[in-house]
């Protein structure tokens, strides 16, 4: 069993991603488990070619050294197998709806925006026949469906009885985060997840996929995000500065601030459990 840090290589790490990385490292170490680095490189249009190497240098500069590394771009066969499995259970279906159509639905008041900004899928392409079987406790009996996806369509997962269908495979051929993360956490033996609280809303989707695929459900800790002076979450969009990528006084100071953020924002018993590994890390980075 292991813990992991799973950055998307859309840019360098900032103070917020450092706090998450540190928290996941501390949790794995306090359990005496390996800490894995997983580069979530599934969205080439949003990625920069330099970022994955930069992220690795930044982690090392802060003493956060991983026991294993993997790249999601190498895992397509795993994701395809999971999609085939879901399709065979009648839980995945091809969806040809355009962005435009969903926007029109929104404007016509046929659907709403979810808290994260996504438009709730109104269900145009959801097959009618499988509905009763999906609502029942066992997933079986829905009837096998084709895994063939007509050109230009995405694959959607039929979730929460049709209340929250989400994309598994995008129309442009890229795998969606929800499917990939659930499949990889299982394949890599991840029994506990530490990530930013901006992802807390994803958990019901991940749980639904884990149950449908018969996978273990890892424990999850969501770390409060770090905000800038204006109260905005640090991110590329809010122009958060990159952290150091070389061992330096600056890197030490950043690590110290990341720890202070965790101490301030997490329950005391958790911080207590982390203090051993933290002291070892701090001593190593200090010298
Ligand atoms: N790749 C995601 C991010 O950079 C993290 C995903 C996860 O930890 O589940 O925000
Ligand atoms: Zn559709």
Q: Could you characterize the architecture of this molecule?
A:
This protein is of the alpha/beta class. The protein has two domains: 3-73 and 188-202 and 210-286, Rossmann fold (3-Layer(aba) Sandwich); 76-178, Glutamyl-tRNA Synthetase, domain 3 (Alpha-Beta Complex), CATH 3.90.800. The chain has nine helices and eight strands. The chain has a three-stranded parallel beta sheet. Strands 4-5-6 form a three-stranded antiparallel beta sheet. Strand 7, helix 7 (203-213) and strand 8 form a beta-alpha-beta unit. Helix 1 (15-30) crosses helix 8. It is globular, with a radius of gyration of 20 Å. The relative contact order is 0.18. The structure holds glutamic acid and zinc ion. The site of glutamic acid has 8 residues, from strand 7. Glutamic acid binds at residues 6-8, 40, 181, 195-196, 199.
Could you outline the blueprint of secondary structure elements for this entry?
Layout: E1 3-5, H1 15-30, E2 35-39, H2 51-61, E3 68-71, H3 76-88, E4 92-95, H4 99-107, H5 131-135, E5 154-157, E6 166-169, H6 177-187, E7 192-196, H7 203-213, E8 219-223, H8 249-265, H9 268-286
Parallel strand pairs: 1-2, 2-3, 7-8
Antiparallel strand pairs: 4-5, 5-6
């Amino acid at each position: 069993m292991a813990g992991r840090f799973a950055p998307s290589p859309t840019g360098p790490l900032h103070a917020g991603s450092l706090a998450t990385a540190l928290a996941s490292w501390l949790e794995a170490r306090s359990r005496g488990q390996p800490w894995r680095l997983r580069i979530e490189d599934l969205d080439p249009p949003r990625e920069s070619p330099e970022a994955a190497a930069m992220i690795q240098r930044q982690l090392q500069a802060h003493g956060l050294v991983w026991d294993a590394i993997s790249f999601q771009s190498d895992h397509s066969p795993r994701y395809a197998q999971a999609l085939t499995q879901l399709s065979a259970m009648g839980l995945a279906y091809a969806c040809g709806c355009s962005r435009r159509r969903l926007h029109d639905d929104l404007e016509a008041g046929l659907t709403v925006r979810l808290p994260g900004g996504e438009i709730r899928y109104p269900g145009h392409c959801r097959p009618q026949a499988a509905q009763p079987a999906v609502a029942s406790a066992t997933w079986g009996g829905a009837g096998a469906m084709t895994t063939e996806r007509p050109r230009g369509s995405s694959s959607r997962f039929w979730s929460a009885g049709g209340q929250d269908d989400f994309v598994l495979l995008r129309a442009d051929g890229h795998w969606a985060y929800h499917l990939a993360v659930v499949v990889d956490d299982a394949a890599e033996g991840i029994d506990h997840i530490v990530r930013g609280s901006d992802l807390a809303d994803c958990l019901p989707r991940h749980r639904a996929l884990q149950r449908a695929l018969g996978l273990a459900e890892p424990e999850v800790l969501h770390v409060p995000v770090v905000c800038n002076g204006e109260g905005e979450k640090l991110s590329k969009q809010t122009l958060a500065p990159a952290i150091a990528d070389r061992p330096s006084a600056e890197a030490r100071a950043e690590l110290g601030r990341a720890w202070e953020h965790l101490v301030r924002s997490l329950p005391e018993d958790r911080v207590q459990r982390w203090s051993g590994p933290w002291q070892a890390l701090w001593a190593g980075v200090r010298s």
